[in-house]
Design brief:
alpha/beta, Rossmann fold, 2 domains, 8-stranded mixed β-sheet, 5-stranded mixed β-sheet, 9 helices, globular
Length: 297
């Protein structure tokens, strides 16, 4: 969808009637939804397209300075159902297989926050409010038009070459849905990332299971001896990671923090691609203004 071949373009054309039906369905759903307030400020950080766009680190950067913030997400690929409290104001309350890797990453990176996974976002919001949250962040909650919220959408750069909804293109809602966001942000303009390698070694093997792993390419060190990428949210086994180390006579595995939360207890040599996100003052001010206006109601 992001680097289509000629066959990819042909397949997109064949599937276009299905995409048009999908587009009609999601558009009607949004237009017919009535938003409801839950008496607490809700901020959604998301994107219109499939694949990684930086919503997780952006959510972390925006939530970290706030007191009593909560993050609610679906917990994609977790081995549990229903609502789970992942982190109760810094106290980890479940294992990564129950929470999913993204939720555990939030729990590790936001030690003073509340993190909840729930397929039903409304149920998660009510629970967060009950537990004393003062502001709620929805990870990828733009499609939840029945929830009154401040929507931040991340526009991917560059834009995908196929401007269609699923299955002909990467859009989950039509590209004109950007008009429904409160603010649309772009990397390089509203936020930027800095990456450094923590605990580097002489011969590292990159192992990662994130969406669009090509995003890491500009930050990879020269002393990689091999690279292995897996589908987003893939759960590693210790045996396969040991095989990679032995196969390349490597001195460590190079992983992201999202990967690292799944490797605790494996007792393997790790090097971390540590990400620091710098958010523009105007974006911080937009969030602060929304929170102030909500409290002033």
């Amino acid at each position: 969808m992001y680097r289509p071949s000629i066959l990819g373009y042909l397949l997109a054309g064949v599937l276009l009637p299905v995409s048009l039906l999908y587009t009609l369905g999601v558009t009607l759903k949004r237009l017919l939804s009535a938003s409801q307030s839950f008496g607490i400020p809700v901020i959604s950080v998301g994107n219109l397209t499939l694949g990684g766009s930086g919503k997780t680190p952006l959510t972390i950067a925006l939530a970290a300075p706030l007191e009593k913030s909560a993050v609610i997400l679906r917990g994609y690929k977790r081995q549990s159902k229903g609502m789970r409290i992942v982190s109760h104001w810094g106290e980890i309350a479940c294992k990564v297989k129950e929470s999913g890797d993204e939720a555990m990453l939030y729990a590790k990176m936001l030690p003073n926050a509340l993190v909840i996974v729930s397929e039903d976002r409304v149920q998660g919001i009510l629970k967060a409010k009950e537990l004393g949250a003062k502001a709620i962040f929805l990870d990828d909650g733009f499609s939840k038009a029945d929830i009154e919220k401040f929507d931040i959408l991340i526009r991917p750069t560059p834009a995908p070459p196929l401007p269609f909804c699923l299955p002909s293109g990467p859009y989950r809602e039509p590209f004109w849905a950007y008009r429904y966001a409160n603010i649309v942000v772009e990397e390089g303009k509203d936020f930027s990332r800095k990456v450094h390698v923590e605990n580097p070694t002489a011969a590292m093997v990159l192992v990662t299971a994130i969406a669009n792993p090509a995003r890491l390419n500009p930050f990879l060190p020269p002393n990689l001896v091999a690279s292995y990428t897996f589908p987003d949210h893939y759960m590693y086994t210790q045996e396969e990671l040991i095989t990679f180390l032995k196969r390349h006579n490597a001195t460590s595995l190079l992983v992201t923090h999202k990967d690292a939360v799944k490797l605790e207890g494996f007792d393997l040599p790790l090097s971390l691609l540590t990400l620091t996100l710098e958010v523009s003052p105007s974006l911080h001010n937009s969030v602060a203004t929304y929170l102030h206006q909500f409290d002033a109601r």
